[in-house]
Amino acid sequence: MKALVYNGPCDVVVKTMPDAKIERPTDVLVKITATNICGSDLHMYEGRTNMESGRILGHENLGEVIEIGKAVDRVKVGDMVCLPFNIGCGFCENCERSLSGYCLTANPGAAGAAYGFAGMGPYSGGQAEFLRVPYADYNCLVLPPDAKEKENDYVMLSDIFPTGYHATELAGVKPGDTVVIYGAGPVGLMAAYSAVIKGASQVMVVDMHKDRLKLAEKLGAIGIDDSEGGAVGKIMELTDGQGADRGCECVGYQCCGKHGHEVPNLTMNNLVETVKATGTIGVVGVFIPEDPGAKDALAKKGQLAFDFGKFWFKGQKIGTGQANVKAYNRKLANLIHADKAKPSLIVSHELPLEQAPEAYRHFDKRDDGWTKVVLKP
Ligand SMILES: NC(=O)c1ccc[n+]([C@@H]2O[C@H](COP(=O)([O-])OP(=O)(O)OC[C@H]3O[C@@H](n4cnc5c(N)ncnc54)[C@H](O)[C@@H]3O)[C@@H](O)[C@H]2O)c1
Ligand SMILES: [Zn+2]
Ligand SMILES: [Zn+2]
What we know:
This protein is an alpha/beta fold and 377 residues long. The protein folds into 2 domains: 2-159 and 324-376, Alpha-Beta Complex (Quinone Oxidoreductase, Chain A, domain 1), CATH 3.90.180; 163-320, Rossmann fold (3-Layer(aba) Sandwich). The chain has helices at 39-45, 93-96, 136-139, 151-154, 160-170, 186-197, 210-218, 231-238, 266-274, 297-300, 308-313, 329-337, 356-364; strands at residues 2-8, 11-16, 28-36, 61-68, 80-83, 130-133, 141-142, 178-182, 202-207, 222-225, 244-249, 275-283, 317-320, 349-352, 373-376. Helix 13 links the parallel strand 14 (349-352) and strand 15. The protein is globular, with a radius of gyration of 20 Å. Bound molecules: nicotinamide-adenine-dinucleotide (NAD) and zinc ion (2 copies). One zinc ion is lined by residues 88-89, 92, 94-95, 103-105.
């Protein structure tokens, strides 16, 4: 099968790889019809993780079931399914509590498994013609009959829509809240969309890219351009000097200052500053235990110069981590099915798999107009 393979930093190629196949009776095999490139892929693409070369990337996958293992009960050949990026077993202590992002079975010795992901088990990604889906009865979200027609909406349920929603859950967003979101990439945009859906009274999104901020405004948020600095002051002004009720971090450890160089503690400390006393912060942007590629000595060890004193003094709360996609994907699918949510609004490019290397280059540079790429193998 054709697949997108990671060769090393900033080097990915589409080549022929052995076909994905059923390996265990609980697997299904999916013919991928839509698979996205994600900001998480970029950390790997840039060589800023321990991703092994030779592996197939792609954790945002949707397609048609073409074969089922002997122990699969629920999922049928012909079903259109969207796969959460996390692989859960469904029966461990964490999956039982809907914490499928921290499955204790699928990646032994760690908590959490995913397709085509550094440090999250041996599973191949879906930027390919076919994908093996483990524990398929648990992991497959079987889509309604409009699956084909709304494919670019439903594929967002594999990661960024639930992840954006998770940011607002970690932050405790409730109707009437004011919310500040750092990052207007796909995840930040979906966090803004989720906050709007939840009935936030004011949603502010900070980024340096005008095209992305424009999309944030289209989704009902206020775009705040930090390319010349000043975002913190602007947010304080918009919230009568109090800060927002809730804050979301949707950038991660490679966050940048206004000159485009990395300042790893910037978004976290800006959140402490711009969320009000007793407010809550949800962090879905990825931070990692070790980052040898960082310029900052602390960041190399996965540490941040975090304004803990101010955080403590303000009595703020914080929640972090991978989104437990299964906790949200069914209800968010219902919103798409009922025409009450349209996450494909942020899709900028729909391309064949062959053009994936070019798409990685553009998306990695955050080139103007490259917000979200859906690949169609
Ligand atoms: N927790 C999860 O389950 C989960 C799931 C998916 C993605 N992620 C992570 O979420 C993060 C965002 O993903 P994405 O796909 O939106 O990526 P992206 O890289 O496209 O978007 C990040 C955005 O942040 C902006 N940014 C950089 N520095 C900033 C700063 N100081 N202030 C405000 N904005 C700044 C960039 O300009 C960019 O638009 C990544 O770290 C990704 O790995 C986490
Ligand atoms: Zn993703
Ligand atoms: Zn599990």
